[in-house]
Design a protein that fits this description.
This protein is of the alpha/beta class. The chain folds into 2 domains: 48 residues; 149 residues, 3-Layer(aba) Sandwich (Rossmann fold), CATH 3.40.50. Helices cover 48% and strands 16% of the residues. α1 packs antiparallel against α2 and α7 crosses α9.
């Protein structure tokens, strides 16, 4: 009996360490496949993950835009959902007269950004960026797809591109957000560039609660 209790205790500790590894890997921009491996291998998987170069902010795709008459350079972080576009549109409306450059950016995880077999996924996100440009009525917008942890990738890109402002959409704090931490909260806490958070939207409230966070890559 003592051996069985010790086994259960060891299993519980291993599972707890595995869950912590899942949280750490997902928080640092790794794909969900690593998270599944962490549940099986526990903290050992962290050693494997360290071998993956952390090139957060690496540009996977870029589409040039056109400069506007204003003086403000704005980066807009989008997660692929209609709610994020609607929220960003509301935040951008009063800024239109002063915008000089605007860049729409989506973030994918590190492994997806490196794997050539995932070009179809990239194509979907790239088309979503072009669609967002049309919805925002911003044909002048630059478009970029970058890889890494969402908050770090957006901030690295904003600093590298000398952006004056980062606009991100309001997001509901579903379970995935609570587990992984809010991208918006981390940006607001650590950003060296001013952050403007868009308002909540009707589209957001209508999105299903069980929406797969991998589909939108990162939950804001």
């Amino acid at each position: 009996m003592d051996t069985f209790v010790a086994f259960l205790l060891g299993l519980a500790i291993w599972s707890a360490l595995g869950l912590f590894s899942v949280w750490l890997l997902r928080r640092n921009g790794h794909t969900v496949a690593w998270a599944g491996l962490a549940l099986w291998m526990g903290p050992i998987v962290l050693l494997l993950a360290q071998s993956v170069p952390q090139d957060s902010g690496r540009v996977i795709y870029f589409h040039p835009g056109t400069d506007l008459p204003g003086s403000l350079n704005v980066l807009v972080g989008l997660d692929g959902s209609s709610g994020s576009v609607t929220s960003a549109k509301a935040a951008l409306e009063p800024l239109r007269p002063v915008i000089h450059r605007i860049r729409l950016v989506s973030v994918i995880d590190i492994e997806t950004g490196k794997a050539p077999e995932n070009y179809s996924v990239d194509d979907e996100l790239i088309e979503a960026l072009h669609a967002a440009s049309r919805t925002l009525e911003m044909p002048e917008a630059e478009l970029a797809l970058v890889s890494g942890r969402a908050d770090h990738a957006l901030m690295t890109h904003a600093v590298d591109e000398a952006m004056d402002l980062v606009v991100v959409a309001h997001r509901q704090h579903r379970f995935a957000s609570v587990l992984l931490g809010s991208t918006v909260a981390r940006l607001a806490k650590h950003s060296s560039v001013p952050i403007l958070i868009g308002p909540p939207t009707d589209e957001e409230s209508r999105e299903p609660e069980n929406e797969d966070p991998e589909k939108n890559q990162h939950v804001f």
